[in-house]
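Pipeline run #58 for the internal structure catalog. This entry was flagged by the ingest filter as a single-chain record with no existing model, so it goes straight to prediction. Upstream metadata was stripped on purpose; only the residue string is passed forward. Reviewer on rotation: M.T. Logging verbosity set to normal.
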Amino acid sequence: MVKITDVARHAGVSPSTVSYALSGKRPISEETRQRVEAAIRELGYRPHAGARALASSRSNVLALVVPLRAGIHVPVVMQFAVSVVTTARRYDHDVLLLTQEEGEDGLRRVADSAMVDALIVMDVQLHDPRLPLLRSLERPSVMIGFPADADGLTCIDLDFKAAGEACVEHLARLGHRVVALVGSPPEVYVRQTAFAQRVVQGFTAAADRGGLSSSVHPCEATPAGARLVAEQLLREQPALTGVVVHNEPILEPLIDAFEQLGLRVPGDLSVTAICPDELAESVRVPVTSVALPSAEVGERAVQLLMKKLGGSAVPEATLLPPRMTERASTAPRDA
């Protein structure tokens, strides 16, 4: 049986350093951590979970809090979850997935138990009722999302405001003067979900700066909802030539609906989106999009937690800049 001393000898470090790499109890350099991880993989070392927990006074479990509320697109949520789980395993941690809408009571129940060492919280609202508890907990936490008041919290996410701005600015550079945002389902806005609100803020700010005529339309995440919004837009904004979509399930149905109503993409209508690259690339007309970096966000959220567990200081705010890829769905507006 491979022992921790074997791993230490193979990595050229002390046994205590291997222990710190496994538990996160103290910070170690990235280069040392990688050597230890490589030695663990090569030797097939498996620390005994019970002994490890006793030694570190930790469970080596992270909680991922992601209530599956109405209007959430589960496939995208699962991309974040997979990234969190795979990154946590690199640090020898497991993940407890909490999907029920239990709010503050559910968080307190988990945090007050010995089940988890730290928490990652998703589906953040601008005025999230969980914030006072998160600020008061002794266990470290990271939020994937930015509430209106993020003081005293550790938050990471795509800069959704900048993403909304980037989509409008791209359409404006192509000469489009009348644009619309087809956004998340109505209940997402009713809850004031932070990422959706940030996109609206960025879209509206960029349109106003550029002197563009603009409107915002929540949309049910169904083909029927896409058809209704397309009909409404053509009825209310007949000069519309540019659309931003922030609602993954209706991206292709919306393009289909516009084309059934006589508008060719991109000949008559340019479409941009904020969505995963693989979705944008798979649509019949590949869509110019700002990527949703779920893998990077999940990975960095875990890394922030590991640093906090190790007693290291971390930035309160980590905003990932938008990355746009131009594809076939946008073109210059005809003069």
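catalog note: Residues 147 and 171 are 28 Å apart (CA to CA).
catalog note: The chain is about 45% helix and 15% strand.
status: ready for reviewer M.T.
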